Amino acid sequence: MPNPTSRTRALPLWLAVLTALVLSLSSSGCKKHSGNSSAILESNIGPSSLALRGRLIFDSTPTMAHSYTGNLLSCGDCHLESGTADYAMPMIDVANLFPRYSQRAGHTITLVNRIQECFARSENGVPPPAGSPGMKALVAYIQWLSRAAPQGQPYESRGLVKLPALTGNPASGKKLYASRCAGCHGSNGAGMPPSLPPLWGAGSFSDGAGLNQTAKMAAFVQHNMPQNAPGTLSPQQSYDVAAYLATRPRPKFDKAYQNY
Ligand code: HEC
Ligand code: HEC
């Protein structure tokens, strides 16, 4: 099977850095803005700061953190608008919430552990060590975003939007996928990375990822997709598409990382 990262690995470094810069600069221009995200992104991050490096990794993960990434997804493909969009698991305030108890791990985890978990599950990759430069940069970026959080109250649009618990119909979801999603993500789910991320297959998230749970996928889709008309699917339609996506093949989560 071809290694999905081999193409990005072959990029010369200067091209990788240029691509990352262009992507990160263009990302604030072409996407919908919700909440405080544009104000936060436009405030001065510092041209040579560790946090800026963290944002580049966040928005171009397969290129900037290729040895830890096993698919073609960037953090920012799911945590939209560089981790600032409402109800797309924003990173604002998140640094202030750790260490916290994790039901999945069964013990208290740190922000570093939580990032490692997304590398192992959502990036289908390898958890970067706590002291690695890339991890330090990601933590610095999430801390930088979290400094803007309102003090003394939970961040309102954290995580995903709350939907009623419904049962999705994969056959209806398949039709909806063809009419509302395939134009960007492809009829084979492979998208056109890095600008249009894959939804299934070797380049996608593993079966141990949060978005592989139908309720979470439905909530993500209902509020954030289709990207050109978010909020236009009903909760039932969102569950239908999520149920269809759950039938698609994707990488197996490596159980060696199940404590993350
Ligand atoms: C395929 C989509 C996807 C990708 C890619 C992804 N994540 Fe996540 N991430 C999620 C989901 C979904 C959650 C919420 C998990 C849950 O509730 O189970 C989450 C949660 C988190 C959290 C905790 C947020 C909170 O509110 O508690 C952090 C921190 C995080 N991710 C960081 C990252 C970083 C850094 C990357 C890139 C290295 C990344 N994620 C890549 C989907 C993704
Ligand atoms: C107009 C193009 C477009 C359409 C239509 C669209 N998406 Fe997306 N989707 C994107 C882009 C681009 C991203 C990456 C995040 C971003 O840049 O906003 C994304 C990200 C995602 C993600 C998280 C990243 C990943 O690949 O796992 C999921 C899940 C998703 N879309 C599902 C859907 C579903 C389901 C539909 C149909 C209901 C849909 N999208 C329709 C463009 C689109």
How would you portray this structure in words?
There is one protein chain. With 260 residues, the protein is mainly alpha-helical. It has 2 domains: 6-146, Cytochrome Bc1 Complex, Chain D, domain 2, CATH 1.10.760; 170-245, Cytochrome c-like domain (Cytochrome Bc1 Complex, Chain D, domain 2, Orthogonal Bundle). The protein has helices at residues 6-9, 13-30, 37-42, 50-59, 61-64, 75-78, 80-83, 111-120, 133-146, 170-185, 214-224, 235-245, and strands spanning 100-102, 107-109. A two-stranded antiparallel sheet has the order 1-2. A hairpin with a 4-residue loop joins strand 1 (100-102) and strand 2 (107-109). The longest helix is centred in the first third of the chain and has 18 residues, at 13-30. The protein is globular and about 45 Å long. The model is unreliable at 1-11 and 14-34 (pLDDT under 50). Bound molecules: heme C (HEC) (2 copies). One heme C (HEC) binds at residues 31, 73, 77-78, 80, 180-181, 183-185, 196-199, 205, 211, 220-221, 225-228, 233, 241.
